Amino acid sequence: MASEAPSTHIAHTLLSRAHSPTHANTIFTDKVLHKPLIVRPTSPDPNSHDARAHRRLLRLRKRKHLRRRQKPKPLSAKEKRVLGIYDIPKEEQKYAIYEPLHRMWVGYMWEILGLKEGQQSCLKAEAVGPILASADYHGAELEVMRSRCVGRVGCKGIVVKDTKFTFEMITKGDILRTVPKRHSIFQFEIPQPRPGAQRKDEDLGTGGAEPEADINAQANIDVHVETDPAARKPFLFELHGSQFESRATDRATKKFKQRPMDEL
Fold first, then answer.
1. At 24, which helix (H) or strand (E)?
2. Which of 27, 75, 91, 186 is packed most tightly, with the most Cβ within 10 A?
3. What CA–CA distance (Å, rounded) separates 158 from 170?
4. pTM (2 d.p.)
């Protein structure tokens, strides 16, 4: 194109029709013959600086840094059920595994109820009712005394999970039982510390004869106290599940009030 004569070039012919010959030659020389041809490469040079890619890299690094500082999103209840986070494996559903937990729970109850070794223990419903209502029952050995479902009566085991509406217990037969709280009355015992003796594993066992006293405690918990201190019989309590439908963490900060029970 550069070696072609101006008179035979189509651009020069068109310019000659619109402009004078001198002006047409000047425009043809500047705009056509001397026009730079910019060629874009088919692949970018690896040594060249790509500003767009650099900005994208900085943006991704900033997003990654902010994501690292943020707390992870908690799992939903459905995701927890699918993953089985709170499910107890079959090989760990053994009564002997949770016996030390029950002994720890008895020591915990001694502490919150103020039971001390070598002292005569006397519990009053007005004092221990709110304490028992807000206590944690993971590790307690409960027994179903009354229930609308007769198949649940007599079920006894150590509580391994205290949910809002159920107690999950491991029985002595190494069976995991889920007992609803509603329309069920549970019973548990707390042995008295032996006077003048250290705490031992046998002190933390359950058992004993049926006491005679029956006091309706606050927060729908019946307190049974043996009047004969020489017998050292355990304290016997009853827990009304229909009035106990709350999680252990919620009960710790909840204030309970005495209310009438129409069911009784």
1. helix 21-28
2. 186
3. 5
4. 0.57
Query: What pLDDT band is residue 180 in, cutting at 50, 70 and 90?
Result: very high
DSSP helix/strand/coil, 148? coil
Q: Which residues contact 261 (CB under 8 A, 6 or more apart)?
A: 220, 240, 243
Sheet holding 176-180, edge to edge: 176-180, 166-170, 156-162, 141-147, 184-190, 235-240, 221-224, 215-217
Question: Any residues with CB less than 8 A from the CB of 122 and at least 6 apart, and which?
Answer: 225
Task: Identify the bridge partners of residue 166 per DSSP, sorted by sequence position.
Answer: 180
- Amino acid occupying residue 171: T
Q: Around 69, how many Cα atoms within 13 Å sit in the side-chain half-sphere?
A: 5
Say how far apart CA 245 and CA 183 lie, in whole Å.
11
Percent helix, strand and coil across the chain, each to the nearest 5: 35, 15, 45
Rounded mean pLDDT, 57-84: 84
pLDDT tens per residue, range 225-256: 444 444 568 888 888 888 888 888 888 777 76
Question: What is the C-alpha end-to-end distance of the chain, expressed in Å?
Answer: 110
Mean pLDDT, all residues of the chain: 77
Q: What is the pLDDT, as a whole number, of residue 99? A: 92
> In 3-state terms, what secondary structure has residue 264?
coil
CA distance 169 to 177: 5
Nearest to 205 by CA among 190, 216, 220: 190
Question: Per DSSP, what are the bridge partners of residue 226?
Answer: none
135 alpha carbon, distance to own chain's centre: 20
In the chain, what percentage of residues exceed pLDDT 70? 74
